[in-house]
Amino acid sequence: MLNPFYQGELTEAGCDEAGRGCFAGPVFAAAVILPKNFSNPLVNDSKQLSEKERNKLRPLIEEEALSFAVASVDNDEIDSINILRASFKAMHLAIDQLKQKPKLLLIDGNRFIRYKRVPHRCIIKGDGIYASIAAASILAKTYRDEFMLRLHGEFPHYAWNTNKGYGTAEHRKAIEHYGICKYHRKSWHLYSKQSVLFVHR
């Protein structure tokens, strides 16, 4: 069972992202405020859960959360501002949408760009320590996976239905063969200099 809260006085929101290391697609982030009586032994870092478990937990989190929001930043903006800033921007956009305003932010990781005047705490591997961050990781991951499944219908040869845009051997091989498409992160330099590049529009 993860820790329910970092402290007991201020309303806190857990924040996490998904898709930071992907070759293609947007980065997603979620912010979640859980009630004081929240308790679910299955909630954990999304990477420690199966796809089936994540999809089962998502509606439970959405139903029980006092407030939650999910936002994304697309691959073009990632190329423009870099993935770290894009991850922080996605978190800010998610926090913007919360119906209840948090007084403290719990951020998974070791860095963050301050959101307005709201204090925050950066917690390394926080998605395996605090329930609100874990819940945010589950929402960010499931929403992003769902989005990549839709993109797979447009470019099925990259197998985004299975790799979700991550740099698997299958995905790398498809890039070598087909080149990159409009959803790939161009700043990642995903193809070899010897390859002939065909950019799909």
Short recap of the structure:
The chain has about 200 residues and is α/β, with parallel strands linked by helices. The protein has helices spanning about 50-65, 75-80, 85-95, 130-155, 160-165, 170-180, and strands at about 10-20, 25-35, 65-75, 105-110, 120-125.
Structure characteristics:
disordered C terminus, Nucleotidyltransferase, domain 5, alpha/beta, 6 helices, globular, 201 residues, five-stranded mixed sheet
Give the overall average pLDDT: 93
- Rough shape? globular
Strand content: 5-15%
Supply the helix-strand structural class.
Answer: alpha/beta
Uncertain spans: 193-201
H and E string: EEHEHHEEHHH
Termini separation: 46 Å
Q: Count of helices?
A: 6
Rg estimate, integer Å: 17 Å
Tally the beta strands: 5
The CATH C-level name is: Alpha Beta
Number of domains: 1
CATH topology: Nucleotidyltransferase, domain 5
- The order of strands across the largest sheet is 3-2-1-4-5
The CATH homologous superfamily is named: Ribonuclease H-like superfamily/Ribonuclease H
Question: From the coordinates shown, what is the CATH architecture?
Answer: 2-Layer Sandwich
Query: Helix fraction?
Result: 25-40%
Largest sheet: number of strands, sense, barrel closure: 5 strands, mixed
